[in-house]
């Protein structure tokens, strides 16, 4: 069955592990790999990355948009996306394959990169170059052979030992280091290296499902420095100010749009409806549904 739909903003990798198109997944000490397979002529959506992502397309087309740039990945190609960014995507299968889309997502957090450096006895060197937020990675024959070997691990996910899964994941990082010498080296150090304006970072991400730690990271500051400078700018804690900003936006959407309460919850950066309803009522003394109903009655 061919699918054409729009998906909501997903916080990855957690949200991806619960996606209906997920086929199989494996996890080990800070690395998650998820396989997807579906028939679609066009699925669009967006996600916010909590970890670094390597996306390999086995069959089909996956287009990523970050800010004003578009990157298209086709069969047997791979793309890297840096953590703590929001991207929009469009994915579809190729016409000659009944629009089959088959791809894998590899999520890497900082811990797995440092484990790899220790495991490989890799002598790290501080790099003066920043890692591009989105970049296409060369895929050689060894990497393709590695990808082709993974289905057997998915099929044995309940019985295979953690140690063997760990060795297999370390193999991925060796292949990646071989394909792109500088990428893993640079990922061992914070990005971006230059400090960004707090106001800009907050405005760009206020409706994204970001944590305060994410915002500090994006601004190039430690968490304590970010909180201190934020309070100096806004005369409020980041958590309280951002929550109130999101609630103000939610109240506006409840009055001016026909979106459901659930859609408004996610559109404003909240991650679950229960928490959204609780903090909304604390702020406005009414639940979101009551707030909208009372307004309509007045009209």
From TrEMBL:
The keyword Protease does not apply. InterPro entries: ExsA-like_N, Homeodomain-like_sf, HTH-like, HTH_AraC, HTH_AraC-typ_CS, Tscrpt_reg_AraC-type_HTH. It comes from the Bacteria. Residues 196-294 form the HTH araC/xylS-type domain. Pfam families: ExsA_N, HTH_18. Keywords: DNA-binding, Transcription, Transcription regulation. PANTHER family: ARAC-FAMILY TRANSCRIPTIONAL REGULATOR (PTHR43280), HTH-TYPE TRANSCRIPTIONAL REGULATOR EXSA (PTHR43280:SF2). This is Helix-turn-helix domain-containing protein. It comes from Paenibacillus illinoisensis.
